[in-house]
Write a structure and sequence with these properties.
mainly alpha
Length: about 70
Amino acid sequence: MYAIEFEADIQNGTVKIPEMYRQLDNAHAKIVLMVNDESFQAQRETELDFTNTDIKAFSGRDALDIQRTMRDEW
């Protein structure tokens, strides 16, 4: 697999591949989009709030002691 980089505008959900890469027609590709638009980023970010979450995994136990015991087993 190799990488090709170019810039293009997205119009109606379609990206036009430049003519110089037409040999890629009907090829399978992995697409990575890098968008330089802060408003798009702001929509995707959500704040996680775990203040009302009751975690019982280490209830009544010292998490550091559990980690030390696990490391001693290695």
